[in-house]
């Protein structure tokens, strides 16, 4: 199930930048991000208001709120503004390739903050990701 969900995410994240590039043609990146956020929020609000028991607000802790908030700032705010600005100005295939190196940053951060092991296999994989970006750029 994890692989299937990952593949769905991969396909969606692979298609979405092309739509973003087309959509950003006549609007600035920040406006595009706001528009995307409104659309996503609207869909989530509809889902939430339909009474789905999957959403458990009572389970939210201060700790969880803090780290989801940090993830939102790094990912959705700063990361997405940089992503939209890069897509608007550059070649969408190059931008997404560079951004696809984010797992290398995750590898290092997870080792530091979560104590995850960095294995030789992970190091080789990270080096191949970086080499691939260098070759494409």
Automatic annotation (TrEMBL):
<dbReference type="GO" id="GO:0016020">
    <property type="term" value="C:membrane"/>
</dbReference>
<feature type="transmembrane region" description="Helical">
    <location>
        <begin position="120"/>
        <end position="136"/>
    </location>
</feature>
<keyword id="KW-1133">Transmembrane helix</keyword>
<dbReference type="InterPro" id="IPR000620">
    <property type="entry name" value="EamA_dom"/>
</dbReference>
<feature type="transmembrane region" description="Helical">
    <location>
        <begin position="92"/>
        <end position="113"/>
    </location>
</feature>
<feature type="domain" description="EamA">
    <location>
        <begin position="2"/>
        <end position="136"/>
    </location>
</feature>
<keyword id="KW-0472">Membrane</keyword>
<feature type="transmembrane region" description="Helical">
    <location>
        <begin position="60"/>
        <end position="86"/>
    </location>
</feature>
<keyword id="KW-0812">Transmembrane</keyword>
<dbReference type="InterPro" id="IPR050638">
    <property type="entry name" value="AA-Vitamin_Transporters"/>
</dbReference>
<protein>
    <recommendedName>
        <fullName>EamA domain-containing protein</fullName>
    </recommendedName>
</protein>
<dbReference type="InterPro" id="IPR037185">
    <property type="entry name" value="EmrE-like"/>
</dbReference>
<dbReference type="Pfam" id="PF00892">
    <property type="entry name" value="EamA"/>
</dbReference>
<comment type="similarity">
    <text>Belongs to the EamA transporter family.</text>
</comment>
